[in-house]
Amino acid sequence: MSRVLIAGESWISQSTHIKGVDSFTTSAYVTGVEPLRRALEGRGHEVTHLPAHLVPEQFPGDAEALARYDVVILSDIGANSLQLSPEVFERGTPGADRIDALRGWVGDGGGLLMVGGYLSFTGFEGKAAYRNTALHEVLPVELLPEDDRVELPAGGRPSAVGTGHPALGGVTGEWPPLLGYNRVRPRPGAEVLATLGGDPLVAVAEYGAGRSAVFTSDCSPHWAPVAFCEQWDGYARVFGGLVEWLSR
């Protein structure tokens, strides 16, 4: 069993309704973590979810806090949310460098997985912004300097090229189509285990005494349709395999 922290995979949506000359707004809190949580808990892992709105205040800030976990998953949560705690952003006082702490924790033996989305890797309009952080060197891929999203509205089918690697969890056969991903470039020395559109979908690497991995599409809709994240038994194998490889 591994202790897994998933940071991100939640959002607040606000809609404006206009009816003639009148208008009003409604708000909703939404999570996309459930398919991934169920998949990992179904394999016996202990999962803690830190929603996106709590990341700025509560993400672990040092090696001692990170030591509570074996694997950290960053999913659809940008670098600003890790770097700009209320202490730093609202009060203008020095605080913990949580991305540097995360880098050091991986180098000392931790496991890091980044999952794709509009606020992963470089992200929508470059707002995820990991390319300019210390975490970039930890990842098994190199990030683009511009908006890296590739939308595949008609669906694109992944190709597994490293089916014998334990990080893919023994998955075999054809994968369901995905509807998009973040385009990245493989880093020298990394292993690309699956591709999408000719680009890395799953890649892994050693970093110091630790390990890092990426899944460059999403773990929930819209990029990961129901056929992928709810109906395909390979979903739990792939994400379970990644977590188990990362935690050795």
The CATH superfamily name is Class I glutamine amidotransferase (GATase) domain
Mean pLDDT across the residues is 97
Number of strands: 14
**CATH level-1 class:** Alpha Beta
Helix percentage range: 10-25%
Radius of gyration: 18 Å
Give the tally of structural domains: 1
Outline:
Residues 3-247 form the Putative glutamine amidotransferase domain. By secondary structure, the chain is α/β, with parallel strands linked by helices. It is 21% helix and 33% strand.
Explain what you see:
Pfam families: GATase1_like. This is Putative glutamine amidotransferase domain-containing protein. With 248 residues, the protein is of the alpha/beta class. It has one domain: Class I glutamine amidotransferase (GATase) domain (Rossmann fold, 3-Layer(aba) Sandwich). It is built from eight helices and 14 strands. The strands form four sheets. An eight-stranded mixed sheet has the order 4-1-5-6-14-13-12-9. It has a two-stranded antiparallel sheet with strand order 2-3. A two-stranded antiparallel ribbon has the order 7-11. It is globular and about 60 Å long. The mean pLDDT is 97.
